[in-house]
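Q: Entry one of two.
A:
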Amino acid sequence: MGADGVFVANEGAGSGTVQASFGEWAASSAEVSVRAVLGLEVSPTEPVVLADGETVQFTAELHHSDGTTENVTEQAKWTWGGSSKAGSISKSGQFTGGAGCDAAPITAKLKDRTAAGAHVTVRNVMSLVVSPEQCAVLGPAKPSSSKPSGATTTATPTT
């Protein structure tokens, strides 16, 4: 307890009673418990593959010494190691795939703790190449007299 009367918990866990006195007056509070932070965890942790406009929600949780967890998704600072053209992560932990292509992990930081989440890959079709450039159009049961390399003359009619 500071001279200003404010109780400040340091690292570690424990409990105790706060007592105060002034002249002949004295008072004590109920028992005060302090829980320690054991770690920060980010979910999901499995690799994620997205395309332009697709999203995935990340969450961050603190694990405490008393066995409880605390959702700190909104308080965490989120980062994506990839290019901004390929995607971005919001302050609330939602990743949105962009028009580019890249792959990098997502991380969350809260005070002095940092945790890595899933490795995100953003894949988009950038171009489509059709080969061979000249193709023979085959009709039902009609053999072709000229055929490009690799083409066949067998066709199955559809009904």
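Q: Entry two of two.
A:
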Amino acid sequence: MLLRWNRLACDNERARGRGSGSYADGRSSSAMATARWTPDELLARLAELGVETETLNHPPAPTCDEHALYVGHLGAGQAKQLFLRGSGGEFFLVSCLVDTEVNLKQLSTRLGFKASKPLRLSSYEVMSEQLGVLPGSVTPFALVNAGPGVRLLLDARFKAQQKLLFHPLTNERTTVISCAGLVVFLTSLGRTVEWVDFSDASPLQRTEHT
């Protein structure tokens, strides 16, 4: 199935009771899974990390088309999201440019899932539970609310962009950030940054769900 979204990332709500562990800044994953971050806390954290950003306020923009009305003047870098669930309980957040085509069947095969049990779109309720944001607000920033069971797959095309445009946990704002700044942020969470060429068909390592 070839997916072309007209919808930005959808749901999320802070996950409850996911395993133990810690992030690079010393906070435990279990603690972060029970205390939802606010947009202002996220932006303050980016500033603490020395990551330069610019944030615009605008009316609610839960879809890519609506979002483009308010950020189109900024040029390239608008992103779309897809939250997927594997047959073994794995979760994947796919984040890519709006014009990147993702073949869900091919991605399932690349990650080692059987054709009879491919990746599927997660429900809004599960997405909210795992990521801690409302529908239409999902971006890689939502990983501040997620446990280690959520795996992020980033579009390799991000690296060629001067800036990326993401909702900062609310679809009433857009934060402009560089690709390097995004990497700094994700690394501070203890995340492995995984770049994916979605036009490729080569295998990707499958991480077993724990």
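A: Comment on entry two: The helical segments are 29-32, 39-48, 64-71, 104-110, 124-131, 179-188. The chain has one domain: 2-196.
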